[in-house]
Amino acid sequence: xxxxxxxxxxxxxxxxxxxxxxxxxxxxxxxxxxxxxxxxxxxxxxxxxxxxxxxxxxxxxxxxxxxxxxxxxxxxxxxxxxxxxxxxxxxxxxxxxxxxxxxxxxxxxxxxxxxxxxxxxxxxxxxxxxxxxxxxxxxxxxxxxxxxxxxxxxxxxxxxxxxxxxxxxxxxxxxxxxxxxxxxxxxxxxxxxxxxxxxxxxxxxxxxxxxxxxxxxxxxxxxxxxxxxxxxxxxxxxxxxxxxxxxxxxxxxxxxxxxxxxxxxxxxxxxxxxxxxxxxxxxxxxxxxxxxxxxxxxxxxxxxxxxxxxxxxxxxxxxxxxxxxxxxxxxxxxxxxxxxxxxxxxxxxxxxxxxxxxxxxxxxxxxxxxxxxxxxxxxxxxxxxxxxxxxxxxxxxxxxxxxxxxxxxxxxxxxxxxxxxxx
Length: 423
Known about the structure:
Number of domains: 2
Shape: globular
Number of strands: 13
Structural class: alpha/beta
Distance between the termini: 36 Å
Largest sheet: 7 strands, mixed
Strand content: 5-15%
Strand order of the largest sheet: 2-8-7-6-5-3-4
Number of helices: 12
Order of helices and strands: HEHHEHEHEHEHEEEHHHEEHEEEH
CATH architecture of the largest domain: 3-Layer(aba) Sandwich
């Protein structure tokens, strides 16, 4: 049996195959393997937003604030909570991932007085590191950020972290799934490691939420934040979410005091009183249209079930690895993602010296070939995102075949080395 026929058979047996039709595919739709960067549009989102715009905004106007808008951030947080293993009163949608990470990191430093070290790693998404660097400068010159260094550029061993986390460490900020390599941390183990030293851990879930079961409460997690426009399919620039353990909510302060986090926003007091619970971490008026777009996508994830999503993800990432081994390793590609199932998220990174131009050739094919959309990360990595709600095994197979064709024929050579603004 050839590889493509195997993929078709796996598609036919897929228990989640009916969900692909619940997403919008335009004419001449590409093979889309970039859901780890921007999730596809659920069809239900179109009709849902139409109702929000015409009925709630158009007809009900400002009355809609008392008909669901005011509670929307918390209600969607409750809807997301079981998908990331949290209590319904521990998650809320607010602001961007960057702002939420800042709020939570600030709060963590406040409740660990006397500790001046912040630990992260060199696999982390740059904005996370920038936040910490800026926060350390803001807090005073005695604060410092220390990066754990990866030995292979794609994974991190706990011994390296353990050597950095000490009794002077206030906070450890890590991406649960590394953005470039797809390396997956053992959340429970790392959280316990930090707790033994008295440090708090803040998890960035941007490449985990919606792709795999996250078990914040089971892991004893302190803090977390993430975006909703990747595997949560909330749309470009969709509002982010944050999680604060119920054990920390009362003592953890927020640095941004906005009217939506005030105990009685419409009392219009001139002296701020923080709201109780997770609402304390809101800021200003939420973007209702963008926030509303998240709801249909979260319901789809509930319908599928996170365990079923993870089972399919692992099968598809393994299928991609096996196909890459067969077709691409001999052409100079190497795998930049851990091969062990428990150590990888839902995207696979392939490395090649011509990665950028290969990626451009996939997205902008010659002739009438179907486009394949992954993405590129400096300096030599192509990321192929597996979103089990709509990715087919046959998509994965075709993408690997096209990649092999582009490399073997040097089709990539017709593309410039000049980088696009967004890669």
